[in-house]
Description:
CATH 3.30.1390.20, 64 residues
Amino acid sequence: MNTHLAITQVKSAIGRPPDHRGTLRALGLKRIRHTVVQEDNPVVRGMIRKVAYLVEVRPVTKKS
């Protein structure tokens, strides 16, 4: 079983810097309360750190 992260957007991207909006899109988030599951790796952790004030993160285990 691999460790994954459930990432939920909780705040709007309106009025945020363009690179933060792009990071949300790169994570796969499209709107408030949208949740995506991403693999837990350093690249994704870095993107989450950049927009931490806009998202909530919780660990999930995903069977592969």
